[in-house]
Amino acid sequence: MVDSEEGIVEREVRQQFTTSNVAAGRLRGAQESVREELMQLALEVNPVNLSAETPDFVAPEFITKALSEAVTGPNILLNQYTRGYGHPRLVNALSKLYSKLLGHELDPFKEILVTVGAYGALHCAIMALINPGDEVIIIEPFFECYVHITKMAGGIPVFVPLLKNKTKDSISSADWVLDPKEVASKFTNKTKMIIINTPHYPLGKVFTCSELDMVAEFCKKHNVICVMDETYEWLVFKSSEHIRMATLPGMWELTITIGSAGKTFNLTGWKEAIGIGLEIEIERKETPDSYLQDRVERLELKRDCMAKCLSSVGMTPVIPEGGYFIVADFSKLGAKISLNLDEEQGAKDYQFAKWLYRNEKLQVFPFSIFYCVEHKHLGEDFVCFCFVKYEKAEQVFSELKKSLNRVDTYCKTAV
Ligand SMILES: Cc1ncc(COP(=O)(O)O)c(C=O)c1O
Asked: Could you give the CA distance from residue 99 to residue 107 in angstroms, rounded to a whole number?
């Protein structure tokens, strides 16, 4: 069959769009998404998904009810355009809540922006403030979009890894720390912004007051904006305290605080339709009916179950102080299993993750995806699990345990 001229043109255009040449120059060299490849593999092998933060318990009823009332209720205007920077009821609820938390009376109409997810807020903050050539300090491990958006804005990502300061078996996310010298060395006259994520994804580290103070001092000295990604602010376990950078002396003017309603209410698909639920939660905060408090307690149990399970098969969990991810060192296990270690095949953790997908039908994330190319080796001994996923925790953990035990049995037969 002879191709029509339109057919050829269409194919050529399609091909061009699938090659990196069509991307803007500032995006060249962006790392290929390992996530995409693993998602494809997941479609093929259909593993138990222990990497994605999609809980399979029902959404809180007080929120679903509020949404259904809003969309089917008598005020038909609720289904129409709203104020672009945030629905008035939502920004008022946010102002009421965060004025107290930040110790600053927030003007709901001037100091709050509602975006489509925390992702949208990161996009707005970085695109609005970064000029080509500005440097943005990003802490590793990082949520990948920090790098992509920085590059889209023409900025230059400058990486500072958190360093693990203990080697004993049961480590905590608190053992991953910022080296003040390393941080100091990255602030230059080109630095415009630093991005801090606390509680941290995926480590679950909750930055301490002294770490935030240290960063704050550099921000003030160099007049640098601090973007605080506090997506997991309501998921901090008992041993730790969430400190808000904007409350530190002299940091109000330099801080943009970002939260996520989707993560707060386990409704990551809803993004912004959440104001009414927020009002209800403000009323019952710190009472036995508090949904957020109850969730922390339930998830802390899941965290401990998952940690036990990982330890029982020879991995070393990094006990998170917040969030719903747990990172585990598999190096003792990895040495025994039959990975086809070959640089061409990618980092060790990536190969281990693929091995788990294929052999144990377990979906996890390799940890090195949270590092830049030069620092990938720092994450290579770890994989990352999400422990929010199942309401019936015991059931899934026993399945996971069986599955990981099979890995253990396999290791024993393989040595
Ligand atoms: C650290 C971090 N920041 C931001 C986001 C994006 O949150 P949202 O779903 O509200 O866009 C995520 C989502 O996984 C995250 O883990």
From this structure: 9
